[in-house]
Amino acid sequence: MIFVTLGSQKFQFNRLLEKIDALIEEKVITDEVFAQIGYSDYHPKNYQYKDFLNRDEFALMEGKADIVITHGGTGAIIGAVKKGKKVIAVPRMAKYGEHVDDHQIQLIEQFHDMELIYSCSDVQELKTAIEEIQTKKYNEYHSNTAVIIDSIEKFLADIQ
């Protein structure tokens, strides 16, 4: 199953939803697809969707998914890779009214450089992304929270 999540910020991401619909029509995508479309006003024709999911619904859909297609939101990406999902991230672009700037491009590239996700810089590359992600092996996500806490505790111990 493919789970599409577009976050909860007040921006649409219609072009991604439309491209997924087209790839289903072209039989490139044959898996079941479910999308949390957020504030997008495009309503998918070939797959199930809901504007927003509560925490339990989100966890259920993400848990069922083999692939997560998402915007370039940090929370969405980290949440999926922590659960071992294959992630295709597509940045929202300011020129399409999807965000106020293009910071998601840099964010996605950082995750790509760590070999955690597939960076899909434009929806026109989504077909290739879906084909390639099937066989690509990605690194496991390792949180550095413990390292940060240890550093803070050491700092505090040193100043006492």
N-to-C series of helices and strands: EHEEHEHEHEHH
* Count of discrete structural domains: 1
| Total beta strands | 6
Q: Can you name the CATH architecture? A: 3-Layer(aba) Sandwich
User: What is the rounded distance between the termini?
Assistant: 53 Å
CATH topology: Rossmann fold
Q: Which class do the helix and strand fractions yield?
A: alpha/beta
How are the strands of the largest sheet arranged?
3-2-1-4-5-6
Describe this structure in words.
The chain contains six helices and six strands; from the N terminus they run βαββαβαβαβαα. By secondary structure, the chain is of the alpha/beta class. It has one domain: Rossmann fold, CATH 3.40.50.2000.
Quick structural gist:
With 160 residues, this protein is α/β, with parallel strands linked by helices.
Chain-wise SSE layout:
Blueprint: E1 2-5, H1 14-25, E2 33-36, E3 48-50, H2 55-64, E4 67-70, H3 74-82, E5 86-89, H4 103-113, E6 118-119, H5 126-133, H6 145-159
What features would you highlight for this structure?
Rossmann fold; 6 helices; alpha/beta; globular; 160 residues
